[in-house]
Automatic annotation (TrEMBL):
This is non-specific serine/threonine protein kinase. It is found in: Cell membrane. SMART domains: B_lectin. Residues 1-29 form the signal peptide. Its EC number is 2.7.11.1. CDD domains: B_lectin. Residues 30-152 form the Bulb-type lectin domain. Keywords: ATP-binding, Cell membrane, Disulfide bond, Glycoprotein, Kinase, Lectin, Membrane, Nucleotide-binding, Phosphoprotein, Receptor, Serine/threonine-protein kinase, Signal, Transferase, Transmembrane, Transmembrane helix. Gene3D superfamilies: Bulb-type lectin domain. Its main location: membrane.
Length: 162
């Protein structure tokens, strides 16, 4: 009788294990942003080994200014080692995406785009953005690197920056 009870519960247990595996696979942080995807407000990209994180952060002041930056993943204060929009803070809802033309853009509620890869523009919609374990953010078009954050260093110098 006890064996029959265990046998009846086994399919349910297998279902639960498969469901947990499904959610673990889809809840892992990604290091790549593809066309049609976005990073919003408190969402982030995390480098493959979990060393760096890219997302929006605030200055903590009353201005409500927000910036897109890269920081060490284990830094609770999110002290940025690179900032995309130093000159163009976002004041409300934030969104990072790959635009129809393949360029990496930040938009706010007014939908005014700030192009992140301002130095070198993509030429097609076949692009993706990837955060490396070095802290470098790449905009890749096919197999070619179109733009990289290391070409535009900020106050913090990381190995490999120009």
């Amino acid at each position: 009788m006890a064996n029959m009870t265990v046998a009846r519960g086994l399919p349910f247990l297998v279902f639960l294990v498969m469901l947990c595996c499904y959610f673990v696979c889809f809840c892992e942080a990604s290091d790549t942003l593809r066309p049609g995807e976005s990073v919003r407000n408190n969402e982030t990209l995390v480098s493959a080994r979990g060393l760096f994180e890219l997302g929006f952060f605030g200055t903590g002041g009353s201005s409500g200014s927000h910036y897109l930056g890269i920081w060490f993943k284990n830094d609770k204060n999110k002290k940025a080692v690179w900032v995309a929009n130093r000159e163009n803070p976002i004041l409300d809802s934030r969104n990072l995406s790959i635009r129809y033309d393949g360029n990496l853009v930040i938009t706010d509620m007014r939908l005014i785009p700030v192009i992140v890869n301002y130095g070198r523009l993509a030429t097609s919609g076949n692009t993706s953005a990837k955060l490396l374990d070095s802290g470098n953010l790449l905009l890749i078009e096919g197999e070619k690197i179109v733009w990289q954050s290391f070409d535009y260093p900020c106050d913090t110098f990381l190995p490999g920056m120009k």
